[in-house]
């Protein structure tokens, strides 16, 4: 004997205006062009250098980043990552704060890792980014390119004393 179940009634939505899909004009990062409210929220939620006293290395890195990377270079880098060609100065400052905060945290973590040994090495940074394969591969690639450049410069480095001896 078959049991019959009543069929459920389906309610169809009433036809209304078609849904509008708003797409951004270009792919961008969520923080690339933040509103002032988002900037205030970010700074309130994640204050810079939390629970850390700035070490000499961190202060040196901050000065080097601020001095070497001028505002126009920062805007070019942001444009390369999908931001507007002329971002707001507040946006550039926010991105700089985020980068400085990331590097500061990374240096503090590397100092903690290296505290047992007493010396900060490149391997400490590689250890910290070991789970992020993109960063790890790019870092090892840049380190190997740096070694190749050192060897190439060393090959072209001419010692004046040996040059004088060979000419006599």
Automatic annotation (TrEMBL):
Q: What is any one GO biological process for this UniProt entry?
A: transcription by RNA polymerase II
Keywords per UniProt: Nucleus, Transcription, Transcription regulation
Pfam families attached to this UniProt entry: TFIID-18kDa
Listed under GO cellular component are: nucleus
Q: What is the lineage of its organism?
A: Eukaryota, Viridiplantae, Streptophyta, Embryophyta, Tracheophyta
**What InterPro entries does UniProt report for this protein, alphabetically?**
Histone-fold, TFIID_TAF13
Localization recorded for this chain is: Nucleus
Q: Which organism is it from?
A: Aegilops tauschii subsp. strangulata (Goatgrass)
Q: Which PANTHER family match?
A: TRANSCRIPTION INITIATION FACTOR TFIID SUBUNIT 13 (PTHR11380:SF5), TRANSCRIPTION INITIATION FACTOR TFIID/SUPT3-RELATED (PTHR11380)
Q: What is this protein called?
A: Transcription initiation factor TFIID subunit 13
């Amino acid at each position: 004997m078959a049991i019959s179940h009543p069929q459920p009634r389906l309610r169809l939505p009433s036809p209304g205006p078609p849904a509008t899909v708003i797409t951004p004009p270009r792919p961008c990062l969520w923080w690339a062009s933040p509103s002032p409210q988002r900037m205030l929220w970010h700074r309130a939620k994640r204050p810079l250098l939390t629970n850390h006293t700035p070490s000499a290395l961190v202060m040196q890195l901050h000065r080097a980043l601020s001095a070497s990377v001028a505002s126009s270079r920062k805007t070019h880098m942001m444009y390369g990552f999908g931001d507007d060609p002329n971002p707001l100065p507040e946006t550039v400052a926010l991105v700089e704060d985020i980068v400085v905060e990331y590097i500061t945290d990374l240096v503090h973590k590397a100092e903690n890792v290296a505290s047992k040994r007493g010396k900060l090495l490149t391997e400490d940074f590689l250890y910290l980014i070991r789970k992020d394969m993109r960063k790890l591969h790019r870092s090892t690639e840049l380190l190997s390119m740096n070694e190749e450049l050192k060897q190439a410069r060393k090959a072209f480095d001419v010692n004046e004393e040996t040059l004088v001896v060979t000419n006599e």
